Amino acid sequence: MADKKVEAITSMDEDFAQWYTDVVVKADLTGYTSVKGFMVLKPAGYAIWELIQSQLDARFKETGVENVYLPMLIPEGLLQKEKDHVEGFAPEVAWVTHGGLNELQEKLCVRPTSETLFCDFYQKDITSYRDLPKVYNQWCSVVRWEKETRPFLRSREFLWQEGHTAHATAEEAEERTIQMLNVYADFCEQVLAIPVVKGQKTEKEKFAGAVATYTIEALMHDGKALQSGTSHNFGDGFAKAFGVQYADKDNQLKYVHQTSWGVTTRLIGAIIMVHGDDNGLKLPPMVAPTQVMIVPIQQKKEGVLDKAEELRERLSKVARVKVDATDKSPGFKFAECEMRGIPLRVEIGPRDIENNQCVLVRRDTGEKISVSLDELEAKVSELLETIQKDMLETARAHRDSHTYEARNWDEFVDTVENRPGFIKAMWCGDTECEENIKAQTGATTRCMPFEQEELSGVCVCCGKPAKKMVYFGRAY
Amino acid sequence: MADKKVEAITSMDEDFAQWYTDVVVKADLTGYTSVKGFMVLKPAGYAIWELIQSQLDARFKETGVENVYLPMLIPEGLLQKEKDHVEGFAPEVAWVTHGGLNELQEKLCVRPTSETLFCDFYQKDITSYRDLPKVYNQWCSVVRWEKETRPFLRSREFLWQEGHTAHATAEEAEERTIQMLNVYADFCEQVLAIPVVKGQKTEKEKFAGAVATYTIEALMHDGKALQSGTSHNFGDGFAKAFGVQYADKDNQLKYVHQTSWGVTTRLIGAIIMVHGDDNGLKLPPMVAPTQVMIVPIQQKKEGVLDKAEELRERLSKVARVKVDATDKSPGFKFAECEMRGIPLRVEIGPRDIENNQCVLVRRDTGEKISVSLDELEAKVSELLETIQKDMLETARAHRDSHTYEARNWDEFVDTVENRPGFIKAMWCGDTECEENIKAQTGATTRCMPFEQEELSGVCVCCGKPAKKMVYFGRAY
User: Fold this and answer.
1) ipTM of this predicted structure
2) How far apart are CA A106 and CA A95, in angstroms?
3) Is the pLDDT assigned to residue A64 strictly greater than 70?
4) How far is CA A25 from CA A48, A192, A226, B141, in A?
5) Cα separation of the two ends of chain B
6) A141 and B42 in contact by Cβ < 8 A?
7) Within chain B, how many helices (H) and strands (E) appear?
8) What is d(CA A291, CA A344) in angstroms, rounded to the nearest whole number?
């Protein structure tokens, strides 16, 4: 335990759930509120979301997405128009029954997701093939009345983006569904340094009202899976329920084909659980609100604080950088930098100044590097890039070394019990087997990956001929 | 009417309210929804809000503001803690009474504003003088159950930012209140090209629970005033109601002093009504999602579309630029550019290409300028800056020429009836006179401006000695 610098965090090997809660609290990401199941996103937590939002939004816009904003309330009658959808969501929505001093004639639910609102809007806004495609997205919060809540992973209100598109053809809708899944996967890997498995959800696990749901699945440090983003193809089901039609070039009225896709503040939970360690949070540089913290050593000595400020000024051209000039001890400041996940620490003291150098300390590896002040900007830029890449490779190595194959039931059970991680196994395609596996092991189908392999030819549960290789795992 | 290119818009002189609605619809800014009083912000409208948000947020952050996110629902008990506040807001909130399938033990309102939530949060989060100041802000939507609604100006849900700060001293709180009012005023002038009058609201018009409310007031084209942003000093009233205390350096428990300040999507309404004309919207370049539209002339001729695309590529380095390569006629495209308020249009046809030139057309003045293609980027940058400045000066000239002085009651009534605009007049400070003036003329106190003048020495209503010069006006 000599390495453990902040005593307040539970060790992750001892109690991962408690470790997670400790990190969220000690890194000052969220706060509790008087409203059960609702949280405050504090500056350190919200700033990560802002970086996710701005970079993901830029990627959306490169593919032609336009942002809009729709109402936060949905009339009951609108929610009920698509049968599967209302069954999926009605049990977990919050109902507004009074507006001002009057009872409403029709109650309104706080949006749990906005398919019905977009359909209602598209029904009014689309008349001709010239109006297609509509490739709209909104950034907002949604409410789902969950029974058990955990910061970022499951809460009664969360922030997200929801893309909703309408297309002339089924092919175009399917193409957009996959395109956005790929945007999510690339974003997770390149920006969040989280490798993901891409695949399709089973019938049982797909979204209420969708023809097909695609997912990206990430593996957390404890070997549990986290569904990190989904993309749905609705076919023309919603269009038929809501009467969303367009006049095609041949002057025939046709139904549009729709998609939706979303990621949430859950991604912050993924960052914590993929990268964190017993010293706290580890943020990939691309989503670190502070990328470099300069810690002056013996800061009361003449010239030290001035030098620290000079370095901050220089580094501000290449990174998001701060100086910690508080009256805390350097050791305390180091521990705090680590707790908050700041990727790179710069130590600068009187002797360093004399030698025209400083010490850089990587949060991901703990490595210390002496650097001449003449090459500070270049070295910091280079190191931030290296950290970003190395964090992805470390996460990938962990994911790969915790991905197992099970060829029969005994192997499957043994793996679930003793080797937490992804389990690749063959499946016959029957929901019954899926439910059996869940009931007996707690593992669920994460996805049918796009990259299929042939493992054994038969279903790991019933032994009948297999149709698909599936990623299984216990999940958040 | 020869100048009126789009017949679908009502002339503003004929019916300003209808002109406004026509512009909102024809410029495709908003859409109606199935939820009464709620609107859709369509891409053209939401993109303006995104530009407002990103530029205002950058200005906030320069002053040390940090963003957070608090719950959208407020328990009834929390809303009731501050007496004036609950009286001000309880009659117009939406109540959530059921979560999932169960009735809630305590009903929750959808936030109409978040003072109570921030107090509850600060009560938990602030313990010592080291925790101060807190200078937090959130971007979100709020709900107020208004009876009459108009796009952007008044709707049951609107987007806004709400800053909420906590300080150790009364002086610091007052300083922050004024600082943020100045941020708003500068932003309106420099980014939205809207000149504003800064001042304090009267007792009658101040925010529910505030010690002092400051406002920026803008004058619309029809001579009506629009309150465009407010900044409130709460003193320690909320802190006492919610028990928000800190241990000072002297180890004494003291109450914090708080402020809040906000602007909303109403600013888009202001842009429309300050700058627009009978051809539609006029966007200041700094908030124009498309700043330059390239319209190819005789686009079927060889080389025209290629050239247009080449110019787009070149101009994309200095402006937000698009090409309209649809099969509509150039005349139709011109009218559409004007309707949507695009600041600068580039016309490029075969003869222009031959002469190595193009024609630039300003939306604000209609001026046409032939420009050599060799100096295209420089000329476009320069013109966008000129348009931004000229639009402010035009709006300022309109505001100044519609600001009147009234020295006695007859002058006051005559001005309200015959010369729509701001009326500067002296006031004794009594709410009774304020209410009389409103009842008899429909004009309300807009603000007691920071720049006071002495006009007549006596109250324009009762003739008693005056205390303040006030801006009056009919208002949205």
Assistant:
1) 0.95
2) 10
3) yes
4) 15, 21, 21, 27
5) 28
6) no
7) 14, 23
8) 6
From the list A42, A66, A95, the residue facing B97 with the nearest CB is A95
SS percent in chain B: helix, strand, coil, step 5 = 35, 30, 35
Give the pLDDT confidence score for residue A210 in this predicted structure. 94
Q: Which of A41, A92, A120 sits opposite B100 (nearest CB)?
A: A92
Q: SS3 of A227, please?
A: strand
Q: What is the residue whose two structure tokens read 């530029």?
A: B55
> For residues A159 and A268, is the Cβ–Cβ distance under 8 A?
no
What single letter denotes the amino acid at residue B18? Q
Chosen from B68, B138, B165 to mutate, greatest number of chain A CBs within 10 A: B68
Structure tokens at B420: 């729509």
Q: What does the alpha-carbon distance between residue B161 and residue A68 come to, in Å, rounded to a whole number?
A: 17
What are the E-state strand segments in B201-304? 212-219, 225-235, 245-247, 253-255, 257-264, 292-296
- The 8-class DSSP code of residue A193 comes to -
- The two structure tokens encoding residue A24: 């969220």
Using CB atoms, which residue from A31, A73, A124 is nearest to B38?
A73
β-bridge partners, A430: none
- pLDDT score recorded for residue B84: 86
**Under an 8 A CB cutoff, do B72 and A125 touch?**
no
Question: A92 to chain B: which residues are within 8 Å by CB?
Answer: 100
- For residues B47 and A67, the answer to whether their CB atoms sit within 8 Å is yes
Q: How far apart are CA B52 and CA B60, in angstroms?
A: 12
Q: Is the pTM of this model over 0.80?
A: yes
B429 within 8 A of B467, measured Cβ to Cβ: yes
Q: Does the pLDDT of residue A58 top 70, yes or no? A: yes
- Kindly give the pairing relationship between strand A66-67 and strand A134-143: parallel
pLDDT 10s digits, B339-351 = 999 999 999 999 9
Tell me the mean pLDDT in the region A302-328. 97
Q: Which DSSP category does B466 fall into?
A: P
By CB neighbour count within 10 A (0-12 exposed, 13-18 middle, 19+ buried), where does A289 fall?
Answer: buried
Measure Cα distances from B257 to A145, A459, B67, B125, B167 in Å.
35, 66, 19, 15, 5
What's the half-sphere exposure (Cβ side, CA atoms, 13 Å) at B189? 14
Gap from B440 CA to chain A (nearest CA, Å):
29
pLDDT digits (tens, 9 = 90+) for A216-245: 999 999 999 999 999 999 999 999 999 999
Q: How confident is the model at residue A194 (pLDDT cuts 50, 70, 90)?
A: very high
**Minimal C-alpha gap between B135 and chain A (Å):** 10
For residues B465 and B476, give the distance between their C-alpha atoms in angstroms, rounded to a whole number.
30
Label residue A130 by pLDDT band (50, 70, 90).
very high
Structure tokens at B375: 């100096």
Above 80 in pLDDT, residue B93? yes
Whole-angstrom Cα distance, residue B452 to residue B424? 10
Of B92, B96, B141, the CB nearest to A94: B96
In eight-state DSSP terms, residue B355 is T
Helices (H), A2-138: 16-26, 43-62, 76-79, 83-89, 115-125
Give chain A positions within 8 Å (CB) of B68: 40-43, 46
User: Could you give the CA distance from residue B367 to residue B456 in angstroms, rounded to a whole number?
Assistant: 45
